[in-house]
Amino acid sequence: MNDYERTTVTREQVDPVTTRGTVVRRTSGPTPLTVMQRAIALIFGVIQALIVLRIVLLLLIANRNNDIVMAIMNITNTLVEPFRGMFRLDRVNTEVGVVLDIAAIVALIAWTLIEGLVLAVLRLGDRGTAETA
């Protein structure tokens, strides 16, 4: 076997193959568990993107009367609110009007950790893909 054959991966639709007492089933598409993991990652990605947008809009002193800015602030208020009051400092204001929303930063970190936890729990169900004969 040369280097090309060792590093090349081919995708074939094959009947169950037995190797060393283990039955390996190959499928042509993603499993339902993979689809669920991708959907959850997408949902949490949208949440994280909205919170990052909130942080940036507050730092850039966005016009709160703008419909898009108002929508992002209203949506993210529900995502950030559970993390308000965790620390004595929730916001840092400047004389110019720039706001650093510490609660939003904490919420971003927390939602990322929650995503990792949910995906780790889902991966526990992915461990039993190979069956012993």
What does this structure look like?
- Helix content is 53%, strand content 11%.
- Helix 2 crosses helix 3 and helix 2 packs antiparallel against helix 4.
- The chain is mainly alpha-helical and 133 residues long.
- The mean pLDDT is 82.
- It has a three-stranded antiparallel sheet, with no helix packed on it.
- The protein has one domain.
- It is built from four helices and five strands.
How many helices? Answer: 4
Hey, roughly how much beta strand do the residues contain? 5-15%
Number of domains: 1
Overall form: elongated
Q: Over the alpha carbons, how many angstroms does the gyration radius reach?
A: 23 Å
Mean pLDDT: 82
Secondary-structure content class: mainly alpha
Strand arrangement within the widest β-sheet reads 1-2-5
Sheet of most strands? 3 strands, antiparallel
User: End-to-end span in angstroms?
Assistant: 28 Å
Query: Roughly how much helix do the residues carry, as a percent range?
Result: 40-55%
- The topology string of helices and strands comes to HEEHHEEHE
Uncertain segments? none
Oligomer: single chain
